[in-house]
Amino acid sequence: MKSYAITDVGIKRKSNQDFVFSSDEPVGNLPNLYIVADGMGGHRAGDFASRFTVEAFTDTVRNSREENPISIIDEAVNFANMALIDKASENVEMKGMGTTLVVATVIGDSIYIANVGDSRLYLVNEDIQQITRDHSLVAEMVNMGELDKKSARTHEKKNIITRAIGADSELVADYFEIEYSAGDVILMCSDGLTNMVEDEDIKNIINEGEELELTAHKLVDTANNNGGKDNISVLLVRLNHDEV
Questions:
Q1: Mean pLDDT over residues 83-111, rounded?
Q2: 17, 184, 189, 243: which has the fewest Cβ within 10 Å?
């Protein structure tokens, strides 16, 4: 199993509020760990929120005595959420800061996933499948039939998310467990990629079969060539049963 992660400021933004973490080696009781976070907040609060959350999350995983992967992730999600809320209360300039979070670990034949917000995890093979569900206003509008998926990508309220780390002490994350086949690729990304590049184009770039580093840079370059309106984070994991 191999991974590669990259985050880019994009063309329009002056700072990068995304933060990524990638480890093919064990982190605590998890055999590997992959995270993408997309922060929000005034001044530099978004930058701080994403980094702080990922660091609080990974520290909790390292110290967790839980054995079940979902239990480990759930413990870390809730700790990071409360830690960010507490941190925001200490500084008026950080009030209201938050971050999305999408997390994955691969164990045996399964991928264990959690997400809060609209950063995504896809499974890519001959097809591309979005595993996570966006916690956003436009996603709710699509689910209720008020908006089609194509219009959602350019809707004026597409940046309004309905769940975030740091937003509410009663946080509810979504959890998934899926099986994979050897050769499949996990894509984890912030909306700076998916708002700029269609899923079909993402799939085609990944299926060109180049090294993960080249593929990740090509995805970022495509997003920037299409406007680069937001920070862009891409984390790719190529899966092989023999290496898990």
A1: 93
A2: 243
User: CA separation (Å) from 157 to 47, 138, 147, 162, 215?
Assistant: 22, 7, 12, 11, 30
> What are the residues whose beta carbons fall under 8 Å from the beta carbon of 235, sequence distance 6 or more?
3, 4, 5, 6, 20, 22, 34, 35, 36, 186, 187, 188, 189, 216
The SS3 assignment for 178 reads: strand
Lowest mean pLDDT among 91-95, 116-120, 221-225: 91-95
Tell me the C-alpha distance between 4 and 215, whole Å: 9
For residue 37, give the CATH number of its domain.
Answer: 3.60.40.10
- What is the average pLDDT score of the chain? 91
The more confidently predicted of residues 91 and 211 is 211
pTM of the full predicted structure?
0.92
Q: Which of 126, 102, 100, 69 minimizes the C-alpha distance to 235?
A: 102
DSSP at 78: H
Nearest C-alpha neighbor of 165 from the set 116, 206, 125: 116
Structural domain total, the chain: 1
* Cβ within 8 Å of residue 65, ≥6 positions away: 29
Which residue range(s) make up the domain with 21? 2-243
pLDDT above 90 (res 76): yes
